[in-house]
Design brief:
Layout (H helix, E strand, L loop, with lengths): L1 E10 L3 E5 L3 E5 L2 E10 L6 H9 L8 H6 L4 E10 L5 H9 L4 E2 L16 E4 L5
Antiparallel strand pairs: 1-4, 1-5, 2-3, 4-7, 6-7
């Protein structure tokens, strides 16, 4: 399936995680929303991407792999939509403009586009 997805991630206490070339990052408690896309074929489909993201045994390649591999975070779930177009950046922009939203790390998940980040942070756990 081709389209866009979000992964909801809970961080209960302040933690430090080394995230590839971004270095050691401090994640504050709250909800993080990661925006990604699936392009359709096998491992690049939405199903393939989400299966990889939720797997605990994987080679760390993408920024999100480092975050989701930490025992200190909880993946709450995922929301996805099948689309013909490319809406990953548009969705990241809309979420980043939401009330209470912050983009904590420049370049997280967005090394292949000009977006500030594809990881959005909400301090309020009851967003």
């Amino acid at each position: 399936m081709r389209g866009v997805y979000t992964i909801l991630i809970s961080v209960r206490r302040r933690i430090w995680i080394r995230v590839g070339c971004l270095g050691r990052l401090m994640f504050n408690p709250g909800i993080y929303v990661y925006v990604g896309a699936g392009s359709g074929g096998a491992s690049t489909s939405i199903e393939g991407r989400l299966t990889r993201h939720f797997s605990k045994t994987k080679r760390k390649h993408w920024h999100i792999d480092y975050l989701l591999s930490s025992s200190q975070v909880e993946s709450i779930g995922a929301v996805f939509s099948e689309t013909d177009g490319t809406y990953e950046c548009a969705l990241a922009k809309v979420l980043s403009e939401s009330v209470g939203a912050q983009t904590p790390f420049e370049g997280f998940g967005s090394s292949d586009c000009s977006c500030p980040s594809h990881l959005i942070y909400f301090k309020d756990m009851n967003m």
